[in-house]
Write a structure and sequence with these properties.
282 residues, alpha/beta, Rossmann fold, 2 domains, seven-stranded mixed beta sheet, 41% helix
Length: 282
């Protein structure tokens, strides 16, 4: 099924605890616009039908659904699907289903668009998962992906800090859920929040903060920091990919016109070729 059951269970616990009901709507919209900045909305047909692969709490589906005709949301976790159904209860054009990325509940070449944000780096075979997503698309339809990047554009000291944090993740992610939740909350308080606020202060002084650890969170709420800390340190299976590796996997899946956004590393979009072969561009 190309899924790790421990990861599926962990995300079910995460979304049950952090169901995003306390997330500010304006903040959610800002994050959504950042992820979807390169998505070709204008190329979609009227009443487009698409699929959200790994919908989690449904936070992105809330923003996508009003722009399309129908949205099918899937997640491998039944607990996450319960949360998404509750969050999307007032959205009539959304259908939320339990399904694995290896067994998507739609016909091949039937979708007008697809997206999977922050999910496919948590499955055993990311390349096969991308191919499965691409197979749902009609020729010319777009697939938007967000995958963890491998810090190939960061200095050695930055990669060293990440390696140290990854040792902590490996230990925390194997602890019981109450311990995972407690430790990740502490990390959010003593690491995420101080470094994010330091970045905000340095930025106000006129300096470039792009290389500062966790500067991404400098304008985000503590709720987002705590959710992401739980996501980061509470998940056993995590893979990271370079820009070239992502391009290669997308091309092998039959996607072309591949474009990357530098705002969220690495968010990429490509369209399904009609001939089973693809070319790519950055």
């Amino acid at each position: 099924m190309n899924q790790d059951d421990s990861v599926v269970d962990a995300f079910g616990d995460e979304w049950s605890r952090y169901d995003q009901s306390r997330m500010d709507a304006a903040e959610r919209r800002a994050l959504f616009e950042q992820y979807f900045a390169i998505f070709p909305w204008s190329d979609l047909p009227a009443d487009a039908v698409g699929i959200d692969i790994g919908c989690g709490s449904g936070r992105w589906a809330v923003e996508v659904a009003p722009r399309v005709g129908r949205l099918i949301c899937i997640d491998a976790s039944a607990a996450a699907v319960d949360v998404a159904r509750a969050n999307l209860a007032g959205v009539p054009n959304c259908e939320v289903l339990v399904a694995s990325v290896a067994d998507l509940p739609v016909e091949p070449a039937s979708m007008d668009f697809a997206y999977s944000l922050g999910v496919l780096h948590h499955v055993p075979d990311t390349a096969a998962a991308i191919a499965s997503c691409a197979q749902t698309l009609k020729p010319g339809a777009p697939l938007l992906l967000y995958l963890y990047y491998s810090f190939e554009n960061r200095p050695i000291w930055f990669r060293g800090l990440w390696k140290a944090s990854d040792l902590l993740r490996r230990a925390v992610s194997r602890s019981p859920y109450p311990v995972r939740n407690a430790i990740s909350s502490v990390i959010a308080v003593v690491v995420y929040w101080p470094l994010a606020r330091l970045s905000a202060l340095v930025e106000r002084l006129g300096a470039d903060v792009s290389s500062m650890p966790l500067s991404y969170y400098r304008r985000l709420s503590f709720y987002v920091m705590r959710t992401d800390a739980r996501d980061r340190f509470g998940t056993q299976l995590e893979q990271r990919f370079s820009r070239d590796q992502i391009r290669a996997m997308m091309t092998a899946a039959g996607l072309e016109g591949i474009t990357f956004s530098d705002d969220v590393f690495w968010t990429a979009v490509g369209t399904r070729t009609g001939l089973g072969t693809a070319t790519s561009q950055s």
